[in-house]
Amino acid sequence: MKAEVDRKKQRHKRHMRARRRLIGTDERPRLAVFCSLKHISAQIINDWEAHTLVAAATVEDEVAGECEGATGNIAAASVVGRIIAERALAEGIEQVCFDCGGRKYHGRVKALAEAAREAGLQF
Asked: Is residue 1 part of a domain?
């Protein structure tokens, strides 16, 4: 018999494997992306101090207002990417390391990353 695939466990293993290399510092904090079925969120985190510097998510009224219709699609991800970059640049953060959370660099994750790059964030 085949073993049943636990996708959540597999994604968590990929995320932990990547997190061994990705560490957010003062000079270069970590841009962490989280995707649920209905929403997408991003945080810029300094891991040395365990402190979130900047955050943006589609659950915020300001961000959800800019999304046309649904908040869990590629268009909403690009809005979150643009807003997180604007907030980061306002705080003086220009460079980050990108943490996709064990997901493929594809779809919503890719749209968020590209929108953040276009808005001026470097990674």
From this structure: no
